[in-house]
Amino acid sequence: MPFLDRVARWAEERPEELAVVCGAERLSWRALVARAAALAASGAPTGVLRQGNGTDFAVRWAAGVAGERECAVLDPLWPDGPAGAVLRRAAPRLPAAPAPARLRDGDPASSFLIGLTSGTTAVPKGFRRSRDSWRRSFEASADRFGLRPDDRVLAPGPLSASLNLYALSECLYAGAVFTTLPRFDVAAAHAEIAGRGVTRLVVVPAMLRVLAERGLAASVDAGGLTAIVSAGQELDRRTEEAARRWAPRATLWEYYGAAELGFVAARRRGPGQPAVAPGTGVGTAFPGVELAVLDDDGRPVPEGTPGTVCVRSRLVCDGYLWGDDGRAFGELGGMATVRDRGFLRDGQLHVLGRSADMVVTGGHNVYPQEVEAAVAAVPGVADAVVTGVPDGARGQRVVAGVVTTHGRLSRRRLQDGVASALAPAKRPRHYVELDELPLTGSGKLSRGLFRDWVLDGDHRVRPLG
Fold first, then answer.
1. Tens digit of pLDDT for each residue in 232-250?
2. Which of 13, 216, 295, 401 has a Cα at 20 to 30 A from 320?
3. What is the CATH number of the domain that holds 334?
């Protein structure tokens, strides 16, 4: 694994300094190495990691990828059906009684992680990732985001989610203190930030909003934060403005990527810079990433023209182990892609959404992310989510769900608000009001869940007149 040799270095240079913190649990670099080395040498099974947050998670993760071992990290909240299906597929690569291993990095070209796409109903896809791909990722992200050994990083979400698993591993590589919580808790997160010297925050936007808004309301001091790294979905204006007021010294980083592709693009807003207007832009190419937008034949499209977002980099995974249906990770024009649609303009990548999310209505292709950006720009809208539902006349019709900043918005006001931003075919035919966005267990926006809510007449969906 690309961090074990570095962990040994930190244990030698800074043995009693903190390495991992979870609530009341504390683990020094010396203790981390001792416990992980003992587990790796014991021959106990370490290939499956399915547990909640805690310092023991870090120990088992380090032991699970020692030498040439591979590890599959499962969300402990997944139902037994999908989890069991994953375990059956992964079993041939994960011996029940592995040979004892030393706590050291394996061959850079070898696979260490059986990565899993998120999902609770279908069987998650499994892909393999090499040690070298994450070592290069650590080098690039630590440099781009400015992570240093004297930083203390808080990632309050589940460690089974790729965002937080990577943050843990990156800290082990860089020598920074990694802090998490037994479960997401606003008061506990505030205590870490205000009272225990946290300098960096790694979160999805939904978590950042509640931390910032409640932090402002409770006068929680976030002046020590120097960086906030956000991913999973676009950072909306309301969340960004709250974060800016709450943590005025923090640089805000957003990045776009995928578990299969690694980092693709990122954008930065320094302290004092104004919030970015809602839109589809996600930033410029990450260091070492070649970025292109191609047509269906694998040829570059003109600037500003939508196509398939493709990358060439050393950060990409090594392919699927199972679940390859040809509609997700693959190759186009000699480059890797997860079938996201987007376009390039002035060096900036704009992402319109997955091909699978595209709504085809009356013969027109509509990308939800573009419509969401237009709806979110209407005064009084805090958040928006868009999907397509069956329509006998059009094939599908565009439905938008809105979370308002205060009070109710009329359908007419929303229609008027998007009229100048969207062509008629792209404008929502139906608006509903939501109290909150539909999110996955790891805090990412789920358009599929929103579609289910609409079709099922869920109580969380209220039509707007």
1. 777 888 889 999 999 999 9
2. 295
3. 3.40.50.12780
